[in-house]
Specification:
Distance between the termini: 17 Å
Structural class: mainly alpha
Number of strands: 0
Shape: globular
Largest sheet: none
Helix content: over 70%
Number of helices: 24
Radius of gyration: 22 Å
Amino acid sequence: MEESSGKSFNKYACACAIVASMISIIFGYDTGVMSGAMIFIKEDLKINDVQVEVLAGILNLCALVGSLAAGRTSDYIGRRYTIVLASVIFLLGAVLMGYGPNYAVLMTGRCTAGIGVGFALMIAPVYSAEISSPTSRGLLTSLPELCISLGILLGYVSNYFFGKLTLKLGWRLMLGVAAVPSIALAFGIVKMPESPRWLVMQGRLGEAKRNLVKVCNSKEEAEIRFKEIKHAAGIDENCEAEVVKIPAEKTHGKGVWKELILRPTPAVRWILIAAVGIHFFEHATGIEAVVLYSPRIFKKAGVTTKDKLLLATVGVGLTKTSFILIATFMLDKVGRRRLLLTSVGGMIIALSGLGFCLTMVEHSKEKLWWALGLSIASVYTFVAFFSIGLGPITWVYSSEIFPLKLRAQGASLGVAVNRAMNATVSMTFISIYEAITIGGAFFLFSGIACLAWAFFYFFLPETRGRSLEEMEELFSRNSKPRGRDLEIQQIRS
């Protein structure tokens, strides 16, 4: 019923999702720029490999803290103002890193930015999911991941151009420029509506309905979605009051952890396993190692000059952005599940190829041009397959499957696992490849990707075309066959 009413595309909802996703550009930029900036920071500040690993990974440990705080914060102050808070934290972090007279100040700025990352990664997909209709939710909810990739690409380009400046000025400008999108976001946020679903949770029904009309294509569609949201929030579907009184434990996210972790229903337990699992495998399969340490990987493969290293790395950013852009338009047509399984299958092959080539290079006494070319091709292939499936789907899937009351804090738990794995990989990759060789490290990632494929096949049903209010039913024990039937119908259509 809702699907039929939401087939045309709502430009206002898209514009709001784009503005909300701007916060993700800052995170992507910070990740991408650090891969090249580390080369100059190590030389300028005279730091060792362990300090470089900590500098790379500390952002994600702080993001873990930020993401856990973001769930409760967004339940309390709203999705819109949580985005504002995230951009202010980012701004402060970027200024500190751009100033960076020594390692301690640089680390302080990186930690501050990390907390902003945690907020951004949780709130942007949740906000986008809550304002979009089922027929365009895949596109709009994947915009934050697209913006992260765009940010990474801008970071790589920044490395290349700012790297030509003096040693002391170059890397500081690379890191300090991240403050610019934070300021731009402050102006964009003024025109954004608050999430209608959050407003209903606060009992502000009149305001929620007005905002729904803005993000829907017709009053009829808005009415259908409004009734579904009220039903999910435990409010009479026919209630037409402007404001209704909601108990404080429901409006401010109290008691959520009890329902989510301590005493979950079978459906919520399955949802939690699916969300935590997809976030775990997104980084356990090695994307952070490739994005953050691509200059080192290319150097091991045989690329020697700094210019060529940074140019090869720009190629990684271009590949990632291009394929995520393709994925954003495929998610609502092909479906989450088929794209995900195809994506991970391609990643397994690319990681095995990269592991083989780097092992051959390491054991050869002369330069193997074929292995160099195949290593670069394997890196690009891996990034392409990741970007067309696992990368964007992780954020789309985890932000759409939780019930309304549990969504913000459930999503924040997924992001916390995501950041923990990101930090683990980025802080241990150098140590791992020194212990088992760089080729062995990528064979390890390939094995983990095989486990990921099996997990996704057995635990993740198709969600394409379902409203957010239907997700708990889809994940209930009785809905398993129905979820598979839906996928079969979609494949045939």
